[in-house]
Specification:
Layout lengths: L13 H16 L12 E6 L5 H12 L3 E6 L11 H8 L5 E5 L3 H10 L4 E5 L5 H15 L7 E5 L4 H13 L2 E5 L8 H14 L2 E5 L2 H5 L4 E4 L11 H8 L6 H5 L6 E4 L11 H4 L6 H24 L2
Parallel strand pairs: 1-2, 1-3, 3-4, 5-6, 5-8, 6-7, 8-9
């Protein structure tokens, strides 16, 4: 893996995505074989946002491979306020082997990576959630097989960071994604443009529509996320009204292919973006996704550290 950092899935090659999936599978099937894979290494977790899955899975993942973790809580003081992002990167690179950053601003992650000699992993920014997107597609490979070329996925809801990562991932894998959002809440035009350019090579299809039933028509998996991501809590009530017809219900799922999976990155708000009858049904694979955050992020850390050591 030649990549130094993981900022967005768009930065990866299709071969690198496949390598992450292969390594995640190996780590999941025989975790003890990798018990010393990162022995002597250390990981810094810098979090401006609260977290369950990202924090626990990175911390446990590093520990399970023999590394140590230090958690830097920046929920009260944003990165760059007390000390410049550049200086933080230049300090941390002297002490740790990996930096994981969960930030409000995508530019903060980019700046950390620009000044750090050790790998920086985007644990979530307002623009991109690459670890989630990679985990989601890895989970699908477990369900339908390693080749996702032509696999059809619908994303219904806000065109947010998770949506961006799913679009980038589809483009790398040759999958088909149809995004259904209210007008004005579509994914960033630049993301769609970059993904479609990649799709010409892989055979992927990237579509954006405004009708949720059109989005899910005949697809093999339906994905949604909260309507108001962290940082947009003040818009919760307004978005609830705007997005009400985009709730994933049994009726909406019925428009998808028979046996379609339901996916969500969690946390979920039952009764808002998804009905309880859907997320708590047998078609939901949301906890498989949550479990696989551990294995996929272990693979990302391991491959980036190995690549950095080989330089």
């Amino acid at each position: 893996m030649a990549l130094k950092d993981l900022i967005t899935i768009h930065d990866l090659t299709s071969r690198e995505v496949a390598k992450i999936f292969q390594t995640a599978g190996e780590l999941k099937s025989d975790p003890r074989a990798f018990g010393n894979a990162l022995s002597g290494c250390s990981v810094a977790l810098i979090f401006e946002k609260p977290s369950l899955r990202t924090r626990v899975t990175f911390d446990l993942g590093a520990t399970q491979m023999g590394a140590s973790c230090v958690y830097l809580d920046h929920q009260g003081v944003r990165l760059g306020e007390r000390e410049s992002v550049k200086d933080m990167a230049l300090n941390l690179e002297r002490w740790v082997d990996v930096i994981v950053a969960r930030t409000y601003s995508h530019e903060t992650v980019i700046e950390l990576a620009a000044h750090s000699a050790v790998p920086v992993i985007n644990g979530l920014s307002e623009f991109s959630h690459p670890c989630q997107g990679l985990t989601d597609y890895f989970t699908l490979t477990e369900k339908v097989g390693p080749d996702l070329k032509g696999f059809s996925l619908a994303y219904v809801g806000d065109g947010n960071n998770t949506c961006h990562s799913l679009i980038f991932g589809a483009a790398k894998l040759g999958a088909h994604i149809r995004v259904g959002t209210p007008k004005g809440y579509e994914p960033a035009a630049e993301v769609v443009k970059l993904a479609r350019r990649e799709a010409r090579r892989t055979g992927a299809k990237i579509e954006v529509v405004n009708d949720p039933f059109e989005a899910v028509d005949g697809v093999q998996a339906v994905y949604t996320d909260v309507w108001a991501s962290m940082g947009f809590e003040a818009e919760t009530e307004r978005r609830r009204e705007i997005f009400s017809s985009y709730r994933v219900t049994r009726k909406l799922m019925a428009a998808a292919a028979r046996g379609a999976y339901f996916m969500h990155c969690l946390p979920a708000h039952r009764g808002d973006e998804v009905d309880a009858q859907v997320i708590d049904s047998s078609c939901a694979i949301v906890y498989d996704q949550a479990e696989n955050r551990l294995h996929t992020q272990k693979a990302i850390m391991l491959l980036l550290v190995r690549a950095n050591q080989e330089k």
